Amino acid sequence: MMRTRIYEHVVELPDFPCRKYFHSRQLMQIYEDAQRQKPYMVVVSDDDEQVVAHLLAVVRQHRLWIPPFLMQHAWIIGEGEYERGVNNREEVFDMMVSALKNKLQHQVLYFELLGFEQKMFGYGALRRMDFFPVKWMSVHNSLHSASPQDRISERLLHRIENGIARGAVTKKVENDEEFDAFFKLLSQYNWLKPYHYQPPASFFRSLMDDGHCQIFITLFHGHVIGAAVCIYSENDVYLWYSAARRKSMAPLHPLSVTLWKAMTDAHEAGYDHVRFLNVGMPFRRNPYRDFILRFGGKECSTYRWFLTPIKWVNHFFTWLWRGIGI
């Protein structure tokens, strides 16, 4: 009989391999050390005390402009990690999410699950736990079958080349001065986007020090005008955060130039895909998603799962999203 246990500190974890960075003990340690973020690792063991699966969740603390001025939500990327030979993955997934729900439902305003590899994975279990699915679009760029140059639209490539010709230079962050300029740009970019959660600067520093993250910045006359945070897990690259001075530096196309450098760098390094963790809200008309697709990516329909412990609110949103069918 399998049993589930939730750990709040890395030092308490049993030994088990971690292949997926978003469910690794390294990332859990970074969350544990960061401000306004608290990790929870769910571990499932068999009768022989051998770990068969684990899943990392993080509770994020948001500062609001209106009362109550502070709220928390639980965030999970992907369906967790399973040892080879585990055939009942959805049953094990059900156990892990149920344990998290029971522990955190009185601490958070809502749960959010995203980034599943298979659209219908865990559908029945999540519906039984009153999670409601929101139809979302994900975008990924394949790097193994063709080069980025073969997939990008000619118009966008021309804009990128024009921006580079005018003096835009993209590189990886290498020192404290560049890092501070990156974080200042990211903070300004997200200031009027309250739905964009931004961790503290120490979080990004720890990601870089851990070796699974690179931050690309685009400079013009020494000023940072574009940035992208990339996470490297297994053989894929995940674009986690991006920012740019799109209006004041529009002729240089800073976001396009920055993302292009991240993609070509990933291709040269031999990665299989670039995956965008956030391509904007799930509306039919989405300028940012349309922009991302011009790099030659593939758009896939998926679900992002939500649950709020306030039952009447959860029922309302379940009815709402089912009705409008976004």
Describe the protein's architecture and organization.
The chain has 326 residues and is α+β, with helices and mostly antiparallel strands. It has helices at 25-33, 89-104, 123-128, 148-151, 154-165, 176-190, 201-210, 254-268, 287-293, 311-324; strands spanning 3-7, 37-45, 51-63, 70-77, 81-82, 110-114, 132-142, 169-172, 213-220, 223-233, 236-244, 273-276, 298-307. Strands 1, 2, 3, 4, 5, 6, 7, 8, 9, 10, 11, 12 and 13 form a 13-stranded mixed β-sheet that branches. Helix 1 (25-33) packs antiparallel against helix 7 (201-210) and helix 5 (154-165) packs across helix 8. The mean pLDDT is 91.
Task: Give the key terms.
globular; 13-stranded mixed sheet; single chain; alpha+beta; 326 residues
Quick structural gist:
The chain is α+β, with helices and mostly antiparallel strands and 326 residues long.
Which secondary structure elements does this structure contain, and how are they paired or packed?
Elements: E1 3-7, H1 25-33, E2 37-45, E3 51-63, E4 70-77, E5 81-82, H2 89-104, E6 110-114, H3 123-128, E7 132-142, H4 148-151, H5 154-165, E8 169-172, H6 176-190, H7 201-210, E9 213-220, E10 223-233, E11 236-244, H8 254-268, E12 273-276, H9 287-293, E13 298-307, H10 311-324
- The mean pLDDT is 91
Please summarize the sheet with the most strands: 13 strands, mixed
Share of residues in helices: 25-40%
Low-confidence stretches: none
β-strand amount: 25-35%
Number of strand elements? 13
Structural class, judged by helices and strands?
alpha+beta
Could you give the distance between the termini? 40 Å
Tell me, briefly, the overall form.
globular
Helix and strand sequence: EHEEEEHEHEHHEHHEEEHEHEH
Radius of gyration: 20 Å
In DSSP terms (H or I, runs of 4 or more residues), the helix count works out at 10
